[in-house]
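User: Could you check the structure of this?
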Amino acid sequence: MSAVLPGRSADLAHRFAPELVPAHAAERSITADQTNHSVVVGEAVVVKWLTAAVEPPHRGAHLMAHLAEVGFHAVPPLYGAHVEQGRVVAVVTGFVVGALDGWDWYVDELLAALPSGSLVTPLATAERVGRLAATMSNALATPSSLIVEPFATASLEPEHHRGMALLDEALACTKGAVQEALAERSDRIASAIGALAETGEVPVQPTHGDLHVGQILRSADRLLVNDFDGNPVGGSPDPRELRSAMVDLASLMQSIDHVGRIAVRRAPEHTDLIHEFIEAAVPRTRRSFLGELSPHLPPTAGEIEIALAGLSAIQELHELVYATRHLPRWAYVPHASLMAMFP
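Assistant: Sure, the predicted structure tokens are below.
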């Protein structure tokens, strides 16, 4: 992506949402860690400039348009995708005023609960997030004019291959004690991932592709799912790709675990209580997701167990590789989670 000239985001926002953004509206960049470059225009619209332009349809824009058509509105509004020379270079969405992502609001909620010793509120939130994610999955699996056949069956072999490649990459890119601990557990990790190849065909559908609490925005008491661009490490840009809904569930479950790992770093005096949160919140998220998912979508109980064990391990490997290559200060989180998963 070339440098975005001042005023260019405002021009684009005005073109796609003239009722919200006047000409020459004020711009400000979002400075949080992001794969792409986002600019808030007029405190009403976000223009996300893609690091790498893609052929239409853009994954995030396509899935958001599909969700809007089938009636799932717990997402920021989509105003359009900007195409130059046959490739999508920017996506324009609504700005959610006052919103924080889950790495802020959920971690803060947990930290605020710790002095009282009561985990009622953060555990209820885990269930609420699970239900929201399942409702989204149901909507993604609902036919629309954009995705006419959103449901099929397929093996988990592609997830197995992706996981083994990530394990190899994690062993190659990590160093020191982290690499040693990973190598000691590599056979067990490989076994969990390998079991994915032994399941039969399972239901597959469109997925969020990078679902974690950081993608859950909260404004007042409203929760919204954000950023359907997919996994920045090895994800497919094709919005028509069908995967198991368990991919999204595993990613979400591990991010609930990660909220606890962050809290331990910030409030080590409450480590025992935070571990109680992790041990209770992750299964609550799982149960609420599966309980809300449409009856025809989940695989069998045995396949759920196999899928979530392997896919959760893959998610932590993805996090570890991403942190090692792009965000080293995050590496302690997937490392701690992997050590807990494979003690």
